[in-house]
Amino acid sequence: MLQPVMAQYNWTELDQIFKDKQQLLGSNVVAMVWKGDSLIYKKEMGDFNSKTQAPVASCSKWLTTALVMMFADEGKISLDDPVVKYIPVFGNYFKSYITIRQCLCHMTGIQQDPIRLLKLFERKKFSSLEEEVNSFAAKDIQANPGVEFRYGSIGLNIAGRILEIVSKKRFDLLIKTKLFNPLSMRKTTFSTMDGSAVNPSGGAISTADDYMKFLVMLMNKGKYNGKQILSEEAVNLMRQVQNRADQIRYAPKAAEGYNYALGSWAVEESPHPELRSQPSVAPGEGRVATALASPGLFGTWPMIDFCHGYAYLVFVKNLLGEERAEAHREIKNIIDKQVPSACK
Fold first, then answer.
1. How far is CA 264 from the centre of its chain?
2. Which element (helix H / strand E) includes 150?
3. 10 Å Cβ neighbour count for 253?
4. What is the pLDDT of residues 169-186, one digit of tens each?
5. DSSP code for 260
6. Which residues have CB under 8 Å from 146's CB, separation 6+?
7. What does the pLDDT look like over 198-241, one tens digit per residue?
8. How far is 325 from 54, CA to CA, in rounded Å?
9. ∠ at Cα 19 (18, 20), nearest 5°?
10. How many Å apart are CA 313 and CA 329, to the nearest integer?
11. Which phi-psi region, left, alpha or beta, contains residue 287 (left: φ > 0; alpha: ψ -120 to 50)?
12. What is the pTM (predicted TM-score) of this model?
């Protein structure tokens, strides 16, 4: 069924680069490109296929941010609400000015260690998200909220805990009901098997097929299969750049040189004319991401290019490295040549 759509493109160069980069990307790889209402490219290598479940690490942040935006759409929270409104213990440690928005863009000012595998294992000592987030309140403050950017897990986990408090439901059950079920993401979950705390910033398990459904929804202005999952305004807000380059104090190698939006990296950005009139209180000065990506530690790389109108996903299981980020830039350039840009 895919053959007629794929025949409109020449993927010889893309096939070759995946062959050349397979050792770098990992032996088990699924690559997919979606445009409009069609999958226009798919490649499965090794033992992986598009239905294989695997951890997606920091790709989870994009999913969690979308759930936060759903609550904002419903008027249950505001991005500029202070965290202390929902979790009073933060007020006991002089952290009353941190907002939900700052949680979504890693600018809480709370001491944040770089993401490492060891740190992921250390968090297993927490039995609930509530316990973990309450421990953040007592951490040292490195900077005033909104001043410095440090990529990590603290902000997104605080935001996830706020949703638990507002909904009175555990995060993994909440996101399944409100986001995954409407998108038919039946093999995606944040639930843990060992009784450890749910991890909104990095704990999702998914498949290439499932995660692509999420990307298609965002690419189509919040709509999936005729149903509006997120408002168009919420998707536009998720594209707004939230920091300046001089504010970045820590970013992983895979994202060096990029600014951050809400829950994902601004791979390409500009003062897009369609969105220039959107209200913005962020330091990004009205800049908007025309391409977003949310790479994970285990190597999965989801991306949307809004100008070229496609979603791109490479689903792997190995650890992400600096060289691999450059490979994805090369791959994107090849796809861009096949799919013309609609932006001027």
1. 4
2. strand 149-150
3. 11
4. 999 999 999 999 999 999
5. E
6. 99, 102, 107, 109, 283
7. 999 999 999 999 999 999 999 999 999 999 999 999 999 999 99
8. 20
9. 90
10. 13
11. beta
12. 0.93
